[in-house]
What does this fold into?
Amino acid sequence: MPPKKIEPKKPEPKKPEPKKDAAPAAKPAPLPEPLPEPPKEPDFDPKSVAIEFSTDQIEEFKEAFTLFDRTPTGEMKITYAQCGDVMRALGQNPTNADVLKVLGKPRPEDMSIKMLDFETFLPMLQHISRAKDQGNFEDFVEGLRVFDKEGNGTIMGAELRHVLATLGERMTEDEVDRLMAGQEDANGCINYTSFVKHILSG
Amino acid sequence: MGCGMGKSRIQPNKCDRVSISVPAATAIRAALLIQRWYRQYVARLEMRRRCTWNIFQSIEYAGEQDQIKLYHFFGFLMDHFTPASSERNLISHIFRENEVCRDADWERYFCYKDIEVPDSYCGPHLAFPMTFCGVSKLMEAFKLKQQLHARYVLQILGETWRLLRILPNINHVSVCHTKEITICGDLHGQLEDLLLIFYKNGLPSCEKPYVFNGDFVDRGKNSLEILLILFGFLLVYPNEVHLNRGNHEDHIVNLRYGFTKEVLGKYRVHGKKILKLLQKIFSWLPLATVINHKVLVVHGGISDSTDLDMVARMDRHRYVSVLRPPKAIRPTLNGNKAGSGKDEDASGPAEGRRRRVRSLTNTSAPGQRNNIPRRSLHNLPTGGAQLNCSVEDELKERRRLAGFDQTYREVKTLDSDSDPEFGEPTETHGHEWKQIVNLLWNDPMPQNGCISNEVRGGGCYWGPDVTEEVLGKHNLQLLIRSHECKQDGYEFCHNRRVLTIFSASNYYEVGSNRGAYIRMGHDLVPHFIQYQASRTCRELTLRQSVGWTERSALRALRQQLFVHKSDLVGAFQEFDPNNTGVISLRHWATATERVLKLGLPWRVLRPQLINRAQHGMVDYQQWIRELSITEPKPEVSDTSIMETMYKNHSNLETIFRIIDTDHSGLISFEEFRQTWKLLSSHLKMEISDKAITDLAQSMDFNKDGSIDINEFMEAFRLVDLSTHA
It folds into this structure.
């Protein structure tokens, strides 16, 4: 279903690259700073978020929320660990870091223990839905085009696997396998335009 | 963009074979983008999967509830109509479950000896007593889609019946250091799954004990083959193969869910006899298995009144169908309970009036029949003929211990097969019946407590506190049960004290779920093996598999919407007093739930069900028209009767089969008319005789004035023409 989100603000110009080596460096990099965001955002305050969703939208979110509710008494609560998934199921596209931020940066051990009810969840969802830089088809294709060394519309599956499993918010081997299932041709190459279509149409 | 949960590193760790060819920051940005989109993709698939599951499950349980309501209605007829009433007479025979009392008479009735196997028969020939080779031959034949001759069917069933009668209500099994036991859940007539389990795990043998936890039949199309194989192994390895009764081992349930139809279809001449014998066999199936005194295996579950000592003592075979309580505890017309005094609540499985029942202390115990020690056959020679002799001896010994002083051919009846209707049912029977209903029908719930199961219409939901109490009381550590389909074939709950195991893969649809079985050794730690029977679905990606199942669920849901269309239009119109023809999405969702009562997330499903919703409004008339379900060929002027027919498709079929007492598959016009009268009583609707006559006239009656039930049902099957995914 089409993601329900507020019009994203115009994407800011791409952030300046910190100076780094082109090739994978042998020297251990210092823990990278968070790549540039508007300087020093305050901690997320749910009360400051004005809800702009319509009543219909909210009813629908409640239904989805209930689908993920596993509490003993059907209390309409989910764990912190589920929060990201529920937002994504509702068409949002946060990174794990985005999710942790709206959750108030909980400790890892709290993620499957602490619970979230719908009233607390809603402003978080609203905030995430306003995020700039959601990325669209073109951004996505651009992001992959950099790996297209021969400029022929394909990228090496192995390289992509490597990137996804070792960089950014790393994926597990299983997740990578599932993502790439059926995408690589006999030479291990991926036509990235159809790859992107495949992901975006889920 | 921010950092993820894991620390991102610039250098690769292990995969030095591949170097990244682009600037690191670019690579990171690309990675983050793909990763978050992938996670969204997975989350959305997961939501679709849960929705689909909800749809299938709610329709399934609504069907069960329907069934129980129908049966309850019959019970009402039996109790409140005079014997002279024609409606009562149509159905009374299903309550006369044991017409012939004496074992010797039964033996005559089920005698296979006069049935000749013609030379033209090219299926397997069986010799008795049953051997391992015989069962193997049987399995091979079924793989080749051959059918076993009725003579052999009756022979196997007869032998099985004799064996089951001397088994206790609760099988007690020991697992020692060198042997692991295998536990399987629901099979539901899916022969491929049983064969797959045997292929992966090995066949039952002295070294390989098995427990099959009920629901062998119904829904799938090889219920009988599964039974014959399981019974075959039971006969060959009575100490190693253990069968528990499930809620589908019940002839009333079979009328609706396909087993009766399967048997009658495969055995036109002897089907009725086979069904009758199976009725008895089902009632004689043990109710539970206990492993090493620590693990309880039962089909449905437990309740706060579960008392295994009572279960062990009762005459289980009195309860041929568990759907209806014995007479003593049925309420009378004015709401007072007939007979019983102490029970707070004693009504039938439906209607939600169950409450807690205080468990009773012991009443008199009828002999040690259920405490026969099982002697091991391990130290006996394994030569074929000798082994079989020993099994015979074993059985003779058990019968002797059980108080059957004669050899089994001369056994006279005890009260063992008397009709529960004939004897004077007591309060004890009421309590016993409840024990069985709970064992076979219950489902676990996350909340504490024990409440009636409105969704299925039978049994209770029980909570973790009840699990602790019952397991504690009986000194058990784990409850293994089946009865509910699970995505991965198994699922723990109640702090891992309750384990559901379900062995019918692709139960709702190809790709809907995996099946699983349990291997358990001396340490009583369960290990799971999962599988999916269809080769096609193993090759599907997750997305394709979810999509396939989802399409099927939506088709089923559209059918449900279609059969309720006039109720739906009525409900929509309540929100449209000015008759504009459109209503808001919110009202659409509310009205739809009100009519269908399936508890589904309608707003989430909306994009899959409604093509066009302009500005949040739905043109409901058009939507209903566009549901694209064809109406079948015979056009009947009275549309309301057609709708009743669609809505009550299963009920109709069930009633037909009940009325068809000789199981011929044909009913006369008069019986057809009576069916409708019964149905309209049940639904509390008026259906005019003229409407029924018109309907009958549009049917194609055979020359002798009868119609074929199967053809009739087929002619009124709805077909979904919808082409959108």
